[in-house]
Write a structure and sequence with these properties.
250 residues; mainly alpha
Length: 250
């Protein structure tokens, strides 16, 4: 049985999700909060963050070598370029290269702005020069814009595929769920600070803080894992430009 292209291969994604979440929970329970934070989150320089980078980086060559799309060469090239762009921007985000670039170009503007410049209020601020706004806008367009366009393009097929137990649709579903988990765990400390009247700069420590760190950083790796899985599954199904038996409907 082909584990990537069988009618039961939709189960691969949930099994991987359960294993990853269990490992994260065990790690969180076994490690002291300060040790876990040091291992998982050190402004992009921790062991786990460094370990995550290759998972995103490998997507760029993988999507070209194992093309997951059917159709004409032009369609394949365009879609592979879109995936490559999003993956490359994910590496940029993980390494904070976008922040380093805008800081190098506009150090005074970034220093005077409270918080990260890659927020909507930076684009609408009156005192920010057009060039700095253009850099921030380019980041949003290349990362979130390209991803949104591709998601919109495949959205109907992904929804139909989910209910038809299509393995790629299920992998992308867990891809999205991992992204939601990352966003929630990223915001939980801020909600906690607000609920307890703590300063914005206060670090939420203890088991709760380390839980958020583990599942936020772990979720970022899971996003890359499910993207790789979806690429391999789609390649196994659609590579010959004729869907694998049983997947003709999508």
């Amino acid at each position: 049985m082909n584990i990537l292209a069988s009618r039961r291969s939709f189960l691969v994604a949930p099994v991987i999700a359960v294993v990853c979440l269990a490992l994260l929970a065990i790690t969180w329970a076994a490690m002291e909060p300060h040790a876990l934070r040091a291992a998982f989150d050190a402004d992009g320089h921790s062991f786990f963050e460094t370990l995550t980078l290759p998972f995103y980086a490998i997507i760029v060559p993988l999507v070209w070598l194992c093309c997951p799309f059917a159709g004409s060469k032009k369609r394949k090239a365009l879609l592979c370029a879109g995936v490559s762009c999003v993956a490359a921007m994910a590496v940029v985000k993980e390494l904070d290269l976008h922040l380093a670039a805008i800081t190098a170009m506009y150090p005074d503007i970034v220093a005077a702005f409270k918080g990260t410049p890659f927020k909507m209020r930076f684009l609408t601020a009156s005192g920010v020069p057009f060039g700095a706004k253009l850099v921030a806008l380019a980041y949003f367009a290349l990362f979130f814009g390209v991803f949104a366009v591709m998601l919109a393009y495949f959205f109907v097929r992904l929804v139909k595929g989910f209910f038809k137990l299509h393995p790629v649709a299920w992998s992308m579903c867990f891809f999205g769920a991992s992204g939601v988990m990352v966003a929630v765990c990223d915001r939980l400390p801020a909600w906690y600070r607000h609920a307890h009247g703590l300063a914005k700069e206060a670090v939420v420590g203890g088991p709760f803080g380390s839980f958020c760190t583990a599942f936020e950083e772990g979720g970022e790796m899971m996003i890359a894992i499910f993207a790789i899985l979806a690429i391999l599954q789609a390649h196994a199904i659609y590579a010959p430009d004729r869907p694998h038996p049983g997947f003709d409907e999508l």
